[in-house]
Structure formats: structure tokens, C-alpha cells
């Protein structure tokens, strides 16, 4: 018998897998919450998160039905499956909330974010920043002799990757809108 007492073909965990098999997995979920478009509703929804110690990774809000006075709040949050279920249940019980959709669980969804990135640099760094911007399909929306402001849309991961490449080239500022998301299909 081996020193680890692991039988070949058994369902035991690998000796190289250092993860705790009993730890709950932290998942990222995108929630679309349809609410009344009235004063104080956003504060109440956000208060639910802060009051219970839930983190918000991204938040966007916009009116979607002018005549019906409805807005859509898109929230990206993280937690264990149990925490995510609690968040959804608590949102659904709120009076100004009409619908709660977990776009992560309901099937394929399209997620996009807009970012503006200011990159300062001269010489080779300036040329490299422009080359990378072209690869990432980022548009130059402002230019001076010493800096650029790039506009980019894409997934949060794409924006993160572009920002990381711009850091050593002179990334000075970044402004992001937060995630806008819709379910795919009918």
C-alpha cells in the first residue's frame, strides 16, 4: 500500500489538490432587478446589500419604461450559492421590486461594460499603447501630446486585461460604467 493509503481508481481526492473539499464555492452572479422608478428605491436595494454585508462588484441603473415608471438595476455580486439565494429572496420581498432575474442561472446572457482609460506616455510606450488599443478595438476619444483617453466596450474580463496591459505603459485613470446585461434569445 502507498504511504498515502490511496487506492487506484478510488474516488479519493488527489494528494496534490490542496482545496478544502468542504468549503463552499464563491460564485459571481449577475442579477437584473426591475423596480419602480421613484425616489429612494435604489437606496433601499443597496441598503439590503450593505446591511447584510453582501458585496457589490458592479452596479448600473437606468429607466427602462418611461410610461410605466420602471427602472432596471443590474447588480453583479459574489457569494456562496446559499448567500445568492438569500439575496434573491430578500430582493423579491421588497415592495418596489417587480422582478428579479438571475442572468447567471437563467441561461446565456450578453454582458458589456464601457470604460474610459487615460494612458500617459511618450515614445515607444505611446506607440505600444496605440498598437494594443487596436488589437483590443479600443477607440481613441481624446489625445494630447502626452496622453490618450481610450474608450472601450466589452466584457469586464476584456477591460481588465486591457487595463493590465496599459499599466506599465502609463495607465493613469480608469472610469467604468458597470455591467449592462441581457438574457439571450426570446
TrEMBL record:
Cited CDD domains: ACT_AHAS
Pfam families xrefs: ACT_AHAS_ss (PF22629), ALS_ss_C (PF10369)
Entry EC no(s): 2.2.1.6
CC annotations in GO: cytosol
Single Gene Ontology MF annotation: acetolactate synthase activity
ACT domain sequence ranges: 30-105
InterPro entries assigned to the protein according to its UniProt record, in alphabetical order: Acetalactate_synth_ssu (IPR004789), Acetolactate_synth/TF_NikR_C (IPR027271), Acetolactate_synth_ssu_C (IPR019455), ACT-like_dom_sf (IPR045865), ACT_dom (IPR002912), AHAS_ACT (IPR039557), AHAS_small-like_ACT (IPR054480)
Protein's GO biological process: isoleucine biosynthetic process; L-valine biosynthetic process
Tagged with keyword Amino-acid biosynthesis: yes
The protein's annotated pathway: Amino-acid biosynthesis; L-valine biosynthesis; L-valine from pyruvate: step 1/4; Amino-acid biosynthesis; L-isoleucine biosynthesis; L-isoleucine from 2-oxobutanoate: step 1/4
Enzyme class label: transferase
Gene3D superfamilies: 3.30.70.260, ACT-like. Chain A, domain 2 (3.30.70.1150)
Record's keyword terms, sorted: Amino-acid biosynthesis, Branched-chain amino acid biosynthesis, Transferase
Catalytic activity: 2 pyruvate + H(+) = (2S)-2-acetolactate + CO2
Annotated family: Belongs to the acetolactate synthase small subunit family.
Subunit structure: Dimer of large and small chains.
Described function: Catalyzes the conversion of 2 pyruvate molecules into acetolactate in the first common step of the biosynthetic pathway of the branched-amino acids such as leucine, isoleucine, and valine.
Stored NCBIfam families: acolac_sm, PRK11895.1
Protein name listed in UniProt: Acetolactate synthase small subunit
Native organism: Aliigemmobacter aestuarii
Name of the gene encoding the protein in the UniProt record: ilvN
Amino acid at each position: 500500500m502507498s504511504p498515502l493509503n490511496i487506492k487506484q481508481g478510488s474516488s479519493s481526492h488527489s494528494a496534490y489538490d490542496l482545496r478544502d473539499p468542504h468549503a463552499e464555492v464563491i460564485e459571481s452572479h449577475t442579477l437584473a432587478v426591475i423596480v419602480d422608478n421613484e425616489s429612494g428605491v435604489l437606496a433601499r436595494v443597496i441598503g439590503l446589500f450593505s446591511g447584510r454585508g453582501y458585496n457589490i462588484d458592479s452596479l448600473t441603473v437606468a429607466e427602462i419604461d418611461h410610461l410605466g415608471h420602471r427602472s432596471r438595476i443590474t447588480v453583479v455580486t459574489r457569494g456562496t450559492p446559499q448567500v445568492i439565494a438569500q439575496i434573491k429572496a430578500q430582493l423579491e420581498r421588497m415592495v418596489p421590486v417587480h422582478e428579479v432575474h438571475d442572468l447567471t442561472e437563467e441561461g446565456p446572457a450578453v454582458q458589456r461594460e464601457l470604460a474610459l482609460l487615460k494612458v500617459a506616455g511618450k515614445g515607444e510606450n505611446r506607440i505600444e499603447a496605440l498598437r494594443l488599443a487596436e488589437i483590443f478595438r479600443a477607440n481613441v476619444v481624446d489625445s494630447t501630446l502626452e496622453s490618450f483617453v481610450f474608450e472601450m466596450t466589452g466584457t469586464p474580463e476584456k477591460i481588465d486585461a486591457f487595463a493590465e496591459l496599459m499599466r506599465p505603459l502609463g495607465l493613469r485613470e480608469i472610469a467604468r460604467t458597470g455591467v449592462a446585461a441581457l438574457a439571450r434569445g426570446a
